[in-house]
Known about the structure:
This protein is of the alpha+beta class. It has helices at 8-17, 28-40, 42-47, 58-68, 162-184, 195-202, and strands spanning 3-4, 70-74, 92-98, 100-104, 117-120, 123-125, 147-150, 155-161, 234-243, 246-255. The protein has a five-stranded antiparallel beta sheet.
Amino acid sequence: xxxxxxxxxxxxxxxxLLQQRTPEERGEPQLERAAEIIAAAPWFxxxxxxxxxxxxxxxxxxxxxxxxxxxxxxxxxxxxPNLCTKGEPVPAFMVIVRGSVAATDDPLVMHxxxxxxxMKGGQWFGTEALTPPDPFNAGVANAAxxxxxxxxxxxxxxxLLRTDHLRTxxxxxxxxxxxxxxxxxxxxxxxxxxxxQRTALAATFNHAKFIDGETVVEDASRSKAFFVLLRGCVKxxxxxxxxxxxxxxxxxxxxxxx
Length: 258
């Protein structure tokens, strides 16, 4: 969860664009430039690429983050607060712009000279906050794996709260459902559906990927799922039995997108 980012200068440039504390106060040119910097940042590629849905582009995901990320400053205090506490939920994903933090697996050892690791500008932590909720997991899905707190100097962070991150995932989900609804509108057997009905139906779909040559359905008559092709094509084949132990496949048709 603790990785090195080589572009500390890019993070500082991002700070200048996100000086306003709320996304609503940021102008569109600021957001667009911030999104460009985010899209080029190593922490974005490392931590967010896998979270991008099929219907959301890299630029759209970066813009979502530009709207959601906030600038947070911690002034030096005698007893700095924990930013992450091992075993407890991580509240936010954070990128260090200025200052440093100390991380350790031992809650009683927090000083950099006492066996902890020090992270400085250009590094990030709190990727556990990006873990999607798991209704089947009784434990804490986004529990911290380390104790992290400021080292005592002024600390400036770019912060993405977990609650805001979950909202961006919801936005991606809405884009995905709109894409599905558009695709379903072109399916002949669903033409009698109203727009509202197709939108409701789209919400029940999810993505499935198959590699070249992989079997999607073994026996169509027993399939428990309905598929619509978004990309690629599939071959429909039937096995012809000509005798005991003798059979061979026959290609019936090729299905394309839509």
